[in-house]
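We modelled the chain as a single entity of 110 amino acids. Its sequence is:
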Amino acid sequence: MGAGAGRRPLWTYVAGAAAILLVALFAWKWSLWQARAAVGAAYGARMTCSCRYVEGRTAESCKGDTEPGMEIVTISDDPDGKAVTGSVPMMAKRTARYRAGFGCLLDPVG
């Protein structure tokens, strides 16, 4: 056998270390990302619900009322139930419902 037979190239160790660091970063930041997603989903649901059912505007006119960075939040409207759901794919989902005399309230988590 020649010199270096059976040894792995250096790049495989570097790639393995990078993958481990990436997984560690993902695990470390996951709770922060999930919390921000929950806040964004709740904010989007509540603000859009208020726009639709308190102010009486159309769903289309409410789209411009969101803050920068809210592009990842998907809003779905339920006119029959006077409810709006905000969701961030695979991370968070919150629903706000209009209640006469109270305005739009978020459903309890869970």
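As a brief sanity check on the tokenised model: Helices lie at 10-54, 59-62. The CA atoms of residues 34 and 81 lie 27 Å apart.
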